[in-house]
């Protein structure tokens, strides 16, 4: 069995993102780069899409990696948080989060 290989053209990615931004009119645009930018390399895709208004990630680790790559845009943790310590990390990284469960509201109220 042959391994599957994807080659990502970052110039084409930037072009496609610019087209999406044009279609969005004056709306802000978030680049969802969870799962290591869908296997294409989180940092390199994040830097290529540095003109995004925000990034959506699934893990705090992904948020750390984007910040370490020098990206200062809004980051939204799409999976939410599970532990009280996550809230401190979210604040330190200046990452916003989705709240989708009562247990998360309970943690916020503590």
SSE layout:
Layout: H1 10-23, E1 30-32, H2 34-39, H3 42-48, E2 54-57, H4 60-68, E3 74-77, H5 84-93, E4 96-97, H6 102-109
Helix pairs in contact: 4-5
3D structure, described in words:
The chain is of the alpha/beta class. It has one domain: TIM Barrel (Alpha-Beta Barrel). Helix content is 49%, strand content 12%. It has helices at 10-23, 34-39, 42-48, 60-68, 84-93, 102-109, and strands spanning 30-32, 54-57, 74-77, 96-97. Helix 4 (60-68) runs parallel beside helix 5. The radius of gyration is 16 Å and the shape is globular. The mean pLDDT is 95.
CA radius of gyration is: 16 Å
Spatial sequence of strands, sheet with the most strands: 1-2-3-4
Q: On the 0-100 scale, what is the average pLDDT?
A: 95
- Tell me the number of helical segments per DSSP (H or I, 4 or more residues long): 6
Global shape: globular
Summed up, what is this model?
This protein is α/β, with parallel strands linked by helices and 110 residues long.
Task: For the structure shown, list the relevant keywords.
TIM Barrel; single chain; alpha/beta; globular; four-stranded parallel beta sheet; 110 residues; 6 helices; 49% helix
């Amino acid at each position: 069995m042959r391994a599957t290989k994807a080659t990502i053209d970052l110039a084409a990615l930037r072009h496609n993102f610019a087209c999406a931004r044009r279609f969005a009119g004056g709306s802000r645009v978030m680049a969802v780069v969870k799962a290591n930018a869908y296997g294409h390399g989180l940092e390199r895709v994040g830097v290529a899409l540095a003109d995004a208004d925000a990034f959506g990630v699934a893990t705090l680790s992904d948020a750390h990696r984007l910040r370490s790559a020098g990206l200062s845009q809004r980051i939204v943790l799409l999976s939410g948080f599970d532990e009280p310590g996550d809230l401190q990390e979210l604040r330190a990284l200046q990452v916003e989060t989705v709240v989708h469960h009562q247990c998360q509201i309970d943690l916020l109220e503590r």
